[in-house]
Amino acid sequence: MTQYRAAIVGTGAIAAAHAKALRAHSGRIALTAVVDLDADRAGSFAEAWDVPAVAASLTELLDRGDLDLVHLCTPPSTHTPLAVEALRAGAHVLVEKPPTLSLAEFDEIAAASKEAGRHVATVFQHRFGTGAVRLRELAGAGHLGRSLLATCNTLWYRDDDYYAMPWRGKWATEGGGPTMGHGIHQFDLLLSILGRWEQVTAVADRRARHQVQTEDVSMALVTFADGTLASVVNSVVSPRQVSALRFDYERATVELEHLYGYTDEDWTVTPATGFDDVKTLWNADPSTVESGHTGQLAAILDALDAGSPLPVTIEDTRRTMEFVAALYKSAFTGAPVRAGDIGPDDPFALRMNGAPAPWAALASTEGTSTA
């Protein structure tokens, strides 16, 4: 197998998950360099993870011409220029969520990927957990019957100190609130299992975090192409934190409850009367591996070996990003939004707050900005 070379750009908290995944696959890929605007932090990270080189910028690193995969762990507003630069220099890119601030930016990355002949993947690691893989296989083989109903709840808690980070809670630098930066992991998993979504009807509000511009709660009703009805809730005001998904099929209810990562123990299968074989099939090949970056990196390395697009692909990610834009458009305009409704010139393609947020009128009395 080829020994690939990787670099991490941005050595904040999430970078450790990438370094851990790279170490787990050290026989196939090596972490050869890190980049951070904070030289001391970059040096400390490199020392902690035995990284041989530290660069002052991505440009400096790319000039060396010896990278196969660039891991972007920087704030969302920097993803597009950094990804485009890496692609044009001949490297593949793995970018943290949210991959961009808008559909328009994502399409810019997609165009650069096509032009350079290099691939981009977004970190949606929960797709690769054994439970999600098993659920897709059983559903695809028809063992669960028709999909009927689903719920997807990301009920998290982020206090005022969390938003002390200057780029958080602002449309221009984070792109949105829990819809964009927190719940996206769970509803991307939902979309990966249920397939093509057709319509979104949504609401969003700023219930408690009045110092930020973005929502702190959103809710959506979703119709899928196969007729499945689903609800999606995203929150950062929920003290009892949970990430929970439920899928009701004709022959079984399949549930997942976790927080930031799951194992097989976090899934529950309840067969309908007369379909006990579903539980037998589910339990046939148990695993203790937790969903995370390591599993997705394994799939990426397999794709690099095969010369195929990296999972999660540009097409997959765009469907998820279009869902985000549709949720915001529905919430801010009060109308349902169908897949394909948001064209390239739509204000909600250019930015997730394509219209003023419903709470914008409160800015003058609260002393906050909703730009």
Average of pLDDT: 95
**CATH first level of the largest domain: which class?**
Alpha Beta
The amount of beta strand, in percent, is 15-25%
Helix content: 25-40%
Tally of separate helices: 14
Question: What form results from the Cα inertia axes?
Answer: globular
Radius of gyration: 21 Å
Major beta sheet, specifics? 8 strands, mixed
H-E order = EHEHEHEHEHEHEHHHEEEEEEHHHEHH
Instruction: State the end-to-end CA separation.
Output: 50 Å
Named CATH topology of the largest domain: Dihydrodipicolinate Reductase, domain 2
Structural class from helices and strands?
Answer: alpha/beta
How many independent structural domains?
A: 2
Strand order of the largest sheet: 13-12-11-7-10-9-8-14
Architecture overview:
- The model is unreliable at 364-368 (pLDDT under 50).
- The strands form 2 sheets. The protein has an 8-stranded mixed beta sheet with strand order 13-12-11-7-10-9-8-14. It has a 6-stranded parallel beta sheet with strand order 3-2-1-4-5-6, with helices on both faces.
- The chain has 2 domains: 4-123 and 295-310, NAD(P)-binding Rossmann-like Domain (Rossmann fold, 3-Layer(aba) Sandwich), CATH 3.40.50; 126-290 and 319-361, 2-Layer Sandwich (Dihydrodipicolinate Reductase, domain 2), CATH 3.30.360.10.
- The longest helix is centred in the last third of the chain and has 20 residues, at 314-333.
- It is built from 14 helices and 14 strands.
- Helix 1 (15-24) crosses helix 11, helix 4 (79-88) packs parallel to helix 5 (103-116) and helix 9 crosses helix 12.
- The protein is α/β, with parallel strands linked by helices and 371 residues long.
